[in-house]
């Protein structure tokens, strides 16, 4: 199938005209086209999987699980398989993903290309640390196998490389054993940012999975108030008695859906403030530990189909940045003051603690704290605010997540990603004519002089 059509990512911005291919086998990926990028399930937030005026290879039909060893917990699959499809296979057999983003509707290849991280990054690192092998299509050179020990420079340029080193065909992944399909969770409320950082630093509150929701419209002595949510995979003895006999069975859930795009005015400072008040109160009441199933703990938004329509037809941007740990509290305080005073409404604001950076040359994580915000494009001065936030992030030695970006400048990118030159040397060797490219690559001038 080949057709020319408008295309957008999950945030519906930007929308671009691309030539779409949908191969049935991943070896039908053509490494010799003039301008092409592979695309998974379109859950990134920007133009990383768009190629305006060029080719986009859709990989959702390249979703075959090739090998699954239920004893060692090793899986090899085509890049187009979704994490949801993997979970349906492995969870009933006592395994889970070693690292999971906030949605299970992400392709395996996309998880590698974005080097996704999860609630456990401070303990376990990012997705690429558990990938043992990748098969990659190179322009004009066929297929190459790479791993941390075989062609390691290609491997670490591909992990977090936003799909620009070639087309990912197969991925081999080490899984994590679990005793049940449930999590023992607990919530801890904090009245402001200082209190939230105290909770993150408290060893008695630490857990393998930690994440905090923040009220980004609060100000004054409530600036940065939020709820720290912690959890670990539940052991059998922690489960309710009625569940212990079937610990891997997940309860049936009837998902909600947003049927149409809401009007642009629906999300405004008043409506989001009311939501934040209600959400903070509801979550803060959960003081005692409780048992949650994997889907509700790791993927709460997946239970609302088409939730991106809440932001209207004009779409939104997600702004996610990480600040190194020394000075992270002060930097986040300044950033939150700017956001709160601007009155840009974000009811989805997530703060996470991150561990040391991995080996991916363009991977996002670093030791520190990351904040992700969803911001409606109804506000005409939004990009001006984000440019100002970029400067603050750079000043504090941080960076913006490329998988969540739709508007970062080339100059800011180069200041944020010090290993870009190392990555570019590998890219130029593998793809000297830059046939594998994207709208993001052109916007950031990847391959062009600084």
Automatic annotation (TrEMBL):
One of its GO terms (molecular function) is FAD binding. Pfam families: ALO (PF04030), FAD_binding_4 (PF01565). It comes from the Bacteria. The lineage of its organism: Bacteria, Pseudomonadati, Pseudomonadota, Betaproteobacteria, Candidatus Accumulibacter. GO terms for cellular component: membrane. InterPro entries: ALO_C, FAD-bd_PCMH, FAD-bd_PCMH-like_sf, FAD-bd_PCMH_sub2, FAD-linked_Oxase-like_C, FAD_lactone_oxidase-like, Oxid_FAD_bind_N. Residues 10-178 form the FAD-binding PCMH-type domain. The keyword Cell wall biogenesis/degradation does not apply. Gene3D superfamilies: 3.30.465.10. Keywords: FAD, Flavoprotein, Oxidoreductase. PROSITE patterns: FAD_PCMH. This is FAD-binding oxidoreductase.
